[in-house]
Design goal:
single chain; about 325 residues; Rossmann fold; nine-stranded mixed β-sheet; seven-stranded mixed β-sheet
């Protein structure tokens, strides 16, 4: 399938996304929408190159041939692996996903992501700042939740915490009984619930009054029944959703996605444009700003790190945690 190309052919910034993908097309459209809203607000011309599954190399080649000073993309992890493995010199590139933990980025490549690991590390810092000593991690076998739990545990230990107690979650009555008994024997200060939202609501009564942390997926428009059981559960959310009325966003139109995951990708597009602008004269030595996805700052490993807002549920609504 030929690449879908729109925008200005001689633009300095090229956005490369899987807009023709049957799997990732909706996600790519949300990123594109946020990116173009930010570009229009800044009166900056951009080039958008859409590709289908398996077409990322050709799309990058077209962006390079067009003289792009910076390419924003890939969005999908497998596409990122493909581009990272090429033996060609890339222009400055802002990837919107990350390689496997520990894998080095190619020269001239930076990352800005919504990766769940980023939120896990922030929650680990929050738990340590609140003087938690004994932490329990309750996790399912879902790959995404395993990544969330592993990132939290690694950051927790890096910050000086002791080995967390890992507890396995299964929805069967027998295994729920085992989990309840194990939790009853453990003197925990806090718990990480690396679970889907419905399972968080199911497990929450088992941990008593200690602080409970989970991923931002818990805020993906849950039913009233689930919301009732999530009181005081804490999570990291992007400012675009945590504080939609903020003055910083009042001039930017909001996408009508009715889907929190797509809203987050729209916000990622907004911040990705702002980062791309900073590469006008080459990569910035320092960049820090309060964006739609959080407080964004450049670390020493070419990653733009995000700190979102710590939120909690209160009577079915989300409010700032700890009175922030």
């Amino acid at each position: 399938m030929p690449n879908r190309i729109t925008g200005s052919a001689n633009a300095r910034i090229a956005l490369v996304l899987p807009l023709e993908s049957t799997i990732y097309g909706r996600a790519a459209d949300a990123v594109k929408a946020g990116f173009l809203v930010a570009a229009e607000a800044a009166q900056e011309k951009t080039l958008v190159i859409g590709h289908a599954d398996g077409g990322v190399v050709e799309a990058f080649a077209k962006a390079i041939a067009g003289g792009a000073g910076i390419i924003v993309g890939p969005l999908v992890r497998d596409d990122l692996k493909t581009i990272a493995g090429l033996s060609v010199e890339l222009p400055w590139t802002l990837a919107l996903n990350q390689l496997e933990d520990g894998a080095p980025l190619p020269l001239r490549m930076y990352t800005l992501t919504l990766a769940i690991e980023n939120d896990a590390r922030q929650l680990a810092r929050v738990a340590r700042d609140h003087n938690a000593q004994a932490i329990g991690i309750i996790t399912s076998d879902a790959p995404l939740q395993k990544r969330f739990a592993s990132a939290f545990a690694a950051e927790w230990i890096l910050l000086g915490g002791g080995p967390p107690a890992f507890l396995r979650f299964e929805r069967t009555p027998e295994m729920l009984g085992v989990l309840k008994r194990e939790l009853g024997r453990m003197p925990l200060d806090a718990a990480l619930l690396a679970l889907d939202a419905g399972d968080v609501a199911l497990v929450k009564p088992y941990i008593g009054q200690i602080p409970a942390y989970t991923s931002g997926q818990v805020n993906d428009r849950q039913s009233r029944e689930i919301l009732r059981d999530l009181d005081d559960v804490r999570f990291v959310e992007i400012p675009w959703l945590a504080d939609p009325g903020a003055r910083a966003f009042e001039k930017l139109p909001r996408g009508d996605f009715r889907n929190a995951s797509l809203d987050r990708l729209y916000a990622l597009g907004i911040d990705a444009f702002r980062v791309a602008q900073a590469f006008r004269d080459g990569p910035p030595s320092r960049l820090e700003f309060d964006g739609a996805t959080g407080h964004v700052s450049l670390d020493g490993s070419n990653q733009f790190v995000r700190d979102g807002r710590l939120m909690r549920f209160d009577a079915g609504q989300i409010v700032p945690a700890d009175g922030q």
